[in-house]
Design brief:
It is found in: Cytoplasm. By secondary structure, the protein is α+β, with helices and mostly antiparallel strands. The chain has 14 helices and 19 strands. Helix content is about 35%, strand content about 20%.
Length: about 425
Amino acid sequence: MPLSSRLLSAVSPWRSAPAWRIALSGGLDSTVLLHLLATLARCERLPPLSAIHVHHGLQVAADAWPAHCQALCAGLGVPLQVLHVKVDGGASLERAAREARYAALAGCLGEDELLLTAQHRDDQAETLLFRLLRGAGVRGLAGMPTSRPLGRGTLLRPLLDCSRAELEDYARAQGLSWVEDPSNADTRLSRNFLRQRIMPALRERWPQSDASLARAAAHLREAQELLDELAGQDLLAARTESPWPWLNLPSLELAPLTRLSHARQRNAVRTWLAGHTRMPDSDHWAGWEALRDAAVDAQPVWRLGDGELQRADGRVWWLSGDWLRVPEAPVPWPDPSSPLKLPGNGLLSLEGVPPSGALEVRYRQGGEVLQLPGRGRRDLKRLLNEAGLPAFLRGRLPLLFRDDELLAVANLPLLGASGAEAFRLHWRGPTNDQGLS
């Protein structure tokens, strides 16, 4: 079947998308994808096409690529947007560049728009082998999915069933020109080493190795789908409502998880964490066991790439972003009739009769006491213990002071003011960063 027919079949489910955006590097693969789609658009009714070129600025040769892409798009009548991104160096420049590129592409997508990228079957085979050598699990060995959510739209890889040889044959038959990235020849980079040294040797011994590896990735993807279904069933019992729904933090009840086998625990927690953080390696999962098995009165923490899990009152809680930083205090509140934005700690509002005097918000330091009707002066630490509040929350729960007098504690009605100055404090905590999507 011709490439154009296979491509049309792959993109058909998204023909109602408001726009198709093509990630155009200027290399062989994306050039072929752009040409195929622009040609199809002349005889098929497709959403509006446009291309996006991301310029990393990592090498001198790349400075000429935007102009090349502009000429290519102009010849095909496709609008082009050029994005300049800054890549933060680190342990892996490849990874940093990829993350910067996808972040920029995601930012360009409107609601329900489609981003098309040109990865092919050879790329899928390399990905599987690369991840296998890194000791990846089933999810990693499932390779690149054909589609996944990205930003406000969807990322689609419609050429995953096509070989690079097919794309090159098409490009030469159509007289297309493309740029060659000099860094692709650098075998010090792991993927280039696989592409230049290992894959040719495999193909020489097993001519169908690319197709076989891609097929193995498809089998593993199906296995991962089954594991995801099992995790969904196991998490259903653990996703109970917390005693503090206003806390609005991701959490799970621990008891239903501990009744599962260790493998099912890891599968369920891994699936739950996938929306919040990068996955820990196998050795790092000892942190989960320590969190799970700690004494009842302990306050265990499992630190991960993008946040941490804490255990409190029979639940595990995901904390990230501002939740891991000490909020600024004190914060004056000159007009309690208006909500107060707390630096690094959400929003505070007051319901009822505002108290008189100079007010400010502080956080617990120790030794605070609160006057309660019928109970006299009570130690705040004991009151918070009685309320059963999670330990990680006690140091950032807003406290309203007038001079050195503690008037009320946010979100705990029994610790609000009464009498002539009856009011309640309502606190909406900081947004918990969701990590990687």
